[in-house]
Amino acid sequence: MKAVIMAGGYATRLWPITKTKAKPLLPVGKRKIIDFIYEKLLPFDFEIFVSTNLRFAEDFREWAKDKKVEIVVEDTTREEEKLGAVKALSEITKDMNDDILVVAGDNIFSFTLESFVRKFEEERKPLIALYDVKDKELAKRYGVAVMDGERIVEFYEKPEKPLTTLVGIGIYALPEKVVKMLPEYVRDERKDNLGDFVSWLVSREEVLGHVFNDNWFDVGNPDSYIEAFKCYTESYIAEDVEIDETSKVIEPVVIEEGVEVKERSIIGPFAYIGKNCVIENSDISESVVFEDVVLRKVKLWRSIVDEKCEIRNLELSSSIIGGHAKIQRGE
Predict the structure, then answer these.
(1) Which PANTHER family does UniProt cross-reference here (predicted)?
(2) 254 within 8 A of 27, measured Cβ to Cβ
(3) Which residue ranges form the domains of the chain, and what is each CATH number?
(4) Which of 331, 324, 270 is nearest to 293 (CA)?
(5) Is there a contact between 227 and 217 (Cβ–Cβ < 8 Å)?
(6) d(CA 57, CA 303)
(7) Which of helix, strand or coil describes residue 40?
(8) Which of 24, 6, 50 is nearest to 217 (CA)?
(9) Which of 97, 133, 201, 316 is the most exposed place for a label (fewest CB within 10 A)?
(10) 65 Rama class: left (phi>0) / alpha (psi -120 to 50) / beta
(11) Above pLDDT 90, what percent of the chain?
């Protein structure tokens, strides 16, 4: 069996942050989103492939330097050019003669995959990971499964009126026979996401579902990213961080190298501060601040600030600030 991490999207719901950063490489504490997936795959000793695009290829190659993965790059640099998940998967697997385990690159989950892989090996049928979101309004955002025992009898991608709250969570085990069906699906120019492929497959093959019950986060928007960050952050403060005696750090936080915290600032809980930031007379919690940012007299809550920004005299809540922005309110 081979494993494929799908990381080729452009994450438009997290723009402008993800215009310059691949979503799977965003920090969650000291680790990246994709690290959580990679670590869950390591126990199996599978050959691991990461599917990405040309825009972020070098970033993934840098991430992969100390890891046992192969980076596969589709020749796109914009949302409008992307192949889509099924076409990308079809390209990656066209020369593979093996079963595959597919994992979406923006998933963070606390459960292991041992029971999922074991069930697939016992049944030898396509197996889809499911999670009960317990809310039909929330289920509208995902692929929704209707079950008969362990079998998925219907699967609807982002339905207007979900019949259940069991949703697909971007983890699929596909036998070689089904992998060979991907080009057929692509040839017919059908909707090119894996949820619609599952809908198509359910009408042709016996497809099983496997329900997980532990923590799962689909990092599709700023709120879910912050919630995942809160759940998985472990404290780290670099040795050279300067925190003056008037300031306070409330863990858990991650504060990278070269940061200065001064003049009655409060950092945390649940804050990420990137390298070489200057935080002065500011309060930052449940937020992610990338490198080389200057914050003076700023209150930041549940927000994301991209690199090389300078913000003064401002309160920001549930905001995303793009890179190199300069924002100042008068004294």
Answers:
(1) GLUCOSE-1-PHOSPHATE THYMIDYLTRANSFERASE, THYMIDYLYLTRANSFERASE
(2) yes
(3) 2-231 (3.90.550.10), 235-328 (2.160.10.20)
(4) 324
(5) yes
(6) 27
(7) helix
(8) 24
(9) 97
(10) alpha
(11) 62
pLDDT digits (tens, 9 = 90+) for 281-305: 999 999 999 999 999 999 999 999 9
Do residues 300 and 287 make contact, with C-beta atoms less than 8 angstroms apart?
yes
- Indicate the pLDDT class of residue 78, thresholds 50, 70 and 90: low
Residue 151 φ then ψ, to 5°: -90, 135
Contact 13, 218 (CB under 8 A): no
* pLDDT tens-digit map of 134-167: 999 989 988 999 999 999 999 998 999 999 999 9
What SS3 class is residue 172? strand
Length of the chain counted residue by residue: 331
Determine the Cα–Cα distance for residues 302 and 308; give it in Å rounded to an integer: 19
Rounded to an integer, the average pLDDT of 71-94 is: 75
- In this prediction the pTM is 0.88
- 233, pLDDT greater than 90: no
